[in-house]
Design a protein that fits this description.
This protein has 482 residues and is α/β, with parallel strands linked by helices. Helix content is 32%, strand content 17%. The chain is built from 16 helices and 15 strands. The structure holds 2-acetamido-2-deoxy-beta-D-glucopyranose (2 copies). Residues 32-33, 75, 221-222 line the site of one 2-acetamido-2-deoxy-beta-D-glucopyranose.
């Protein structure tokens, strides 16, 4: 156990990996609600600008006033020299007077986002945890945490941070996540997928929420008028990853190009060559969730093994699917949906396509599902077997992160004509699969995506679609023509 109470020297903070909004530290401190970087060389280029790491964590609105209010101050994060830190929290350990610093052992994810984006399946899984995993996986593969796996465990003396064998690159097991601004209900989405995902993917992860953070803040602050107690305490995080949505939006990948916070983490690690382009890095999270949902062992694929480690970065290195499953998630039961006749014609066109294939002796399975009528396990199991995931723009498409990519895997997303958003498009491509945006009887795919737009009708219940166009698109994609 680390006990900085008796330590003569305080370990200084270092940043081991950083992208806007995503920062991995060793030896980060917190006192009275402020995160502290303790260093004797604050001007060192090792430290990114504070505004690229954190914010005030307030809910985000797109107004100049609100943008200004989210700029961090010295109350959010600050630098301290080791001498200043000692003056605030230090004792005299040689003479039996402890430093007032307590270590929070293991590793900690510090999520600084407002609940506004947490209680939404897409943002929680496909942004927050997708980015977290890309970042951690990339940091560990590239050895950003240390020159060699064995020296890190030796340096840390922490079982929770021993890396696995040299071959299996994995982030270490996650110890704890703290939702600084969200109460224990505020990170949960209504359908319950956030909790399902979290417990399935990370069964041992301990959670703290805003009340727990407040406890930690109070425990370190100086009580007003407390007479003889004039000094505060501090918490010490040996390893912490700070995630901040507003800071991510200050970066180019998220702020200017994709509006996806995870894009900052993913692009940094892709740039370092630390992530593959076909989602092998995400495979352990996906696999954990699929096993939890009860996917049969025979339906579990190990892409890393199938490509014999030849990640190659090429979706072409992926295998052809053994069985084709087309899953159409209909939204006819909820607010934003297709014109009913168009929905029926779409189903008819898909059925006809599958029948025609059958007459050619090829078996393609079609599943038309209304997600709300299925259990969570059933939904995840379907996604895990899907070759094509089809649906109107909406949260149900978040399940795409559980698809097991093959050479012909694709997401087909129907938008109100003229409308486009990058949520599922970016995520699909980050996993090495193709994405098609359908506008009635035309479609687009990377690199010819339209501009992001939310025209009138985008959220409505009269979205048109030309079924035969979609059926032909899917057939061509599955046959490898596109
Ligand atoms: C503790 O935090 C509060 C609120 O952020 C701030 O007003 C106060 O000045 C801080 N106290 C110290 C000793 O830094
Ligand atoms: C959708 O496409 C079909 C086929 O081209 C066309 O007949 C129909 O008018 C289109 N609908 C809309 C609303 O543009």
């Amino acid at each position: 156990m680390l006990d900085l109470g008796v330590s003569l020297v305080l370990p200084q903070t270092s940043v081991t990996a950083h992208a806007p909004g995503w920062t991995l530290y060793r030896n980060l401190y917190m006192s009275n609600g402020t995160l502290f970087i303790v260093t004797s060389h604050p001007e060192d280029s090792e430290f990114p600008e504070i505004r690229m790491m954190t914010s005030t964590g307030l809910p985000a609105f797109n107004t100049p006033e609100n943008i200004a209010l989210r700029e961090p101050t010295a109350l959010d994060m600050d630098f301290l020299s080791p001498e200043q830190a000692k003056r605030r929290w230090g004792g005299d350990p040689q003479n039996g007077q402890r430093n007032r610093i307590w270590t929070i052992e293991g590793n900690t994810l510090l999520f600084n986002d407002p609940p506004q984006f947490l209680n939404h399946y897409y943002h929680f899984v496909a942004e927050l945890f997708f980015g977290t995993w890309a970042f951690l996986y990339g940091a560990f593969v590239s050895g950003a945490m240390s020159p060699s796996p064995s020296s890190i465990s030796a340096a840390f003396q922490e079982p929770s941070f021993n890396l696995y064998s040299e071959t299996a690159f994995q982030p270490p097991p996650l110890t704890r996540a703290i939702f600084i601004h969200a109460s224990s209900d505020a990170w949960r989405d209504v359908p319950g997928f956030n909790a399902y995902f979290l417990r399935a993917a990370f069964p041992s992860l301990a959670l703290e929420t805003s009340g727990d953070w407040d406890d930690r803040v109070t425990a370190t602050s100086v009580a007003p008028g407390s007479g003889h107690v004039t000094k505060g305490r501090a918490w010490h995080f040996p390893v912490a990853m700070l995630v901040d949505r507003s800071a991510a939006h200050r970066g180019d990948a998220c702020g200017s190009r994709t509006q996806r916070t995870a894009a900052e983490a993913w692009e940094l690690m892709i740039g370092k060559g630390s992530l593959d382009l076909v989602g092998i890095w995400w495979g352990s999270v996906r696999g954990a969730v699929l096993r939890f949902a009860g996917v049969d062992a025979k339906d579990m694929r190990d892409v890393a093994q199938e490509t014999s480690g030849q990640v190659g970065d090429l979706p072409l290195s992926l295998p052809i699917p053994e069985k084709v499953l087309i899953v159409y998630i209909t939204r006819q039961g909820v607010r934003r949906h297709l014109i009913e006749d168009d929905h029926l014609a779409l189903v008819a066109a898909l059925e006809e396509m599958v029948d025609r294939k059958e007459s050619e002796g090829v078996e393609w399975e079609l599943n038309v599902v209304q997600a709300e009528t299925l259990t969570k396990d059933e939904q995840i199991k379907l996604a895990g077997r899907a070759t094509i995931l089809l649906g109107v723009h909406g949260n149900g498409l978040t399940h795409l992160v559980f698809m097991q990519p093959t050479r012909t895997s694709a997401v087909v997303e129907i938008f109100f004509p003229g409308g486009f958003s990058q949520d599922y498009e970016w995520t699909t491509r980050a996993l090495g699969m193709r994405h098609f945006s359908v506008w009635n009887d035309t479609y687009f795919t990377h690199p010819n995506e339209p501009e992001v737009a939310y025209p009138d009708g985008f959220q409505g219940s009269s979205i048109p679609v030309h079924g035969p166009t979609v059926a032909k698109l899917i057939k061509d994609q599955l046959e490898g023509i596109l």
